[in-house]
Design a protein that fits this description.
The protein has one domain. Helix content is 70%, strand content 0%. It has nine helices and no strands. The longest helix is centred in the middle third of the chain and has 31 residues. The protein is globular, with a radius of gyration of 18 Å. The chain starts with 16 loop residues before the first helix and ends in a 9-residue tail after the last helix. InterPro entries: ADTRP_AIG1. It is a multi-pass membrane protein.
Length: 235
Amino acid sequence: MVQQHPLQKLRSPSRTFSLLLHALGVASFSYNFHFLTVWETPFDLAYGWHFQFLTILGLSAALLSFSFGILADLTLAPVFFKAKNIISIVATPLEVVISILYWGLHLINPELLFVDNMRLPVLTDMGFHLAPSVFLTLDLVLLSPPWTIPAYGIMAMSTGLALSYWYWIELCFSHNGWYPYPIFGLLNTMQRALLFTFAAFLSTVSSMMLKWVYGKVNGYEGARVEAHKPLKKVQ
């Protein structure tokens, strides 16, 4: 049985609202992956498949996190609850950054995002680029203990993720001859470095803002005290 953290807003794991939210999230994320299997694109046979997209990597982390959430809700086992919370430390700010970057670039020029005019239906587009950040943020604010990872830890994690993704898309480019996002092909190496540096900075800011929102909803003083601990407390 998981002992609920005193700052946690609602009971989780539980077979009530927590299970409902996680089940809805898994259903949404799973539908997105099913859509990829029936959507004919140049990525079907490309090196890296759709995992070239940051969107799909973030979606995978979200699906894994919520799958552990469902297991925790059904079994009330602390190990699954802890796994869900650990993965959410990466998945939640990543999905928020994906939403910000995607919709920001979409407003500026959609052609920076789509290869060969690959456009998504509006609801499907929101399922990929908005729903995951909403589900994960709700899970964090309502159903999770506070994050206690320090600012330098968040910055190191964000930088590591940005560099890893940069390496991954360059590896895919070496096999395919094109980038998943057209904007990468318009930039030189230095400009891409600046873009990924900005993404890492945005991920750090996103994590700090999520911690601030958690504090505003669940009790800022208590969350601030928890933040001085080196690890995320999961009971």
